[in-house]
Amino acid sequence: MLLDARDLEEGAVLETDVCIVGAGAAGITLATELRGSGLDVVLLESGGRKDEPETHRLYDGPFEGPFEKDNYCLDSRCRFFGGTTNRWTGTCRPFDDIDFEHRPWVHLSGWPIRRDGLDDYFTRAAEVLDSPVFREHRGDGQLTPHNTLSEDGKPGRLVPKAMYRSQPVVRFGKKYRQVLEEADDLRVILHANVTELVANAPGNAVTEARIAVLCGPRVTLRAKRFVVATGGVENARLLLASNSVIPGGLGNQHGNLGRYFMDHARLRVVGHLMWTGPKPKGSLGQRIRSEISSAPKWFYIMYSPSTEVQRREQMLNCGFRLMGSQVGHVDPLTVDAHRLAAAVDRHPGGPGLREAAPKTAFKGIKFYIEHTPNRESRVMLDDTLDPLGKPRTRVRWRISDSDVDQIYRTLDLLGREVGAASRGRLRITVDRDRIFQEQGFLGSHPMGTTRMTDDPKRGVVDPDCRVHGLGNLYVAGSSVFPTGGFANPTMTLVALALRLADHLKATPA
User: What is the phi/psi pair of residue 282, to 5°?
Assistant: First the structure.
């Protein structure tokens, strides 16, 4: 059932079993999975069915970082039914095994859940995201939801990894609207801005959500369980602003709420691959079109330091793409999608870097970078108020010298790989001291602000995504990620939402 909070009476009180705040990828996944479970569910959405400027401006708030950015949330998020999937490119990939591990060289690394425990959820997430072909078919018929190919089945220094795309790109509001409308045990309420989650007097449970409508009524929703699914920034903001009973906000007893904000730092062009052999003949555009015109459109390739290299050289995870064709500059590592897919079918162990490489020219390198969890990178409440009378969000992003070192160490690996092929040389074109000011931007993947830990002193939610110290409050979305890997977060956050749905169905209120 689809309702509008503008039609409710002032002071109305609603009741339900499960209240989900936020109708983006995580919230809609959770709501659809709870259908038919015997639970009554209410899904609250701040916006309407389409973008509305006055609602979108509720994201307005300052950003502090190493490069100029007017407003992080205004520029990168969507605040209407379907959330930021309304502008999503469809790119998805599960996080790598090593992303879940404790890495002694990465501060606060290690998820409290195992990567292999999510395999079934990644398979289900691929169906939710209309990306069922994200898995490589191995010779034994098994499906593996990740891809770390190396030469002759042996670890290489750099390995190609497939970044998958939903086909077509899933807009959750469009794809799942009819399903949600027709559900008898589910109410979707649009234009319902949750301004606070109110805890009971002992401070161990949430009793109600206070809802405000722009130029409309204020109502109350009481529920047995609450799930916050408003995104990596807004999840922290709502919990911080829910401070009328517990000073400092819900789940902030150890001062971790809103801290360890992460995004995928990206760099556009940091160097050129210089061809040292004979220059290729003919139009490069014609060459590229002829080589990949028959390639499937559901993935593209990035390169990453292998797991073994990351461990041996104590590196963060990262990925890079080769971009910007230019005649005379040939990259011997490039693997086009069509040849990679064919090689995987022929050789379950995976093709080598040079075995599958067509001669395609590239002049630029785009990085997607994991960075170390940093306590000073954080989401805070600003001193200014929004039109609903709640503090705006202030986002502070910090990058460390060691994270910059990661970029240059990866470039060194790339240079060595090119040199070993005796096909070219790498020339770095960006000054280290100004690398982010000149080429940096963020990937619109906010993560980490309600991080998942076994120890309440080190995070905000437990392995079931329940807020430490609160028996009926959960968080869904990328804000629970303890570390960020380099892959787009959508498939992993959907897998975790499916896992949370199973938990709610199996656990009495």
Answer: 85, 175
Largest CA distance in the chain: 77
* 143 phi/psi in degrees, rounded to 5: -110, 130
Mean pLDDT of 447-459: 97
Q: DSSP string spanning 225-281?
A: EEEE-S-TTHHHHHHHH--SSSTT-TT-TTS-TTBS-B--EEES--EEEEE-SPPPP
What's the rounded Cα separation, in Å, for the pair 17 and 9?
Answer: 21
Beta strands in 293-337, from DSSP E residues, in sequence order: 299-305, 318-323, 330-331
What torsion do the CA atoms of 203, 380, 19, 50 make, to the nearest 10 degrees? 160
Question: Is a pLDDT exceeding 90 seen at residue 160?
Answer: no
Q: Residue 280: what residue type?
A: P
For residues 54-78, give the mean pLDDT: 85
Pairing of the two strands 271-275 and 63-64: unpaired
- 481 vs 472: CA distance, rounded Å: 20
**Are the C-beta atoms of residues 193 and 58 closer than 8 Å to each other?**
yes
Q: From CA 210, how far away is CA 206, in angstroms rounded?
A: 11
Q: In this structure, what token pair is assigned to residue 35?
A: 């259908």
Whether 246 and 199 have beta carbons less than 8 Å apart is answered as yes
- What residues pair up with 221 in beta bridges, in sequence order? 14, 209
The predicted model scores a pTM of 0.86
- What's the pLDDT band for 332 if we cut at 50, 70, 90? very low
- For residue 313, give Cα distances in angstroms to 157, 267, 465: 11, 22, 33
Question: In whole angstroms, how far apart are CA 45 and each of 3, 154, 179, 418?
Answer: 10, 49, 16, 50
What the block records as the tokens of 111 is 């998820």
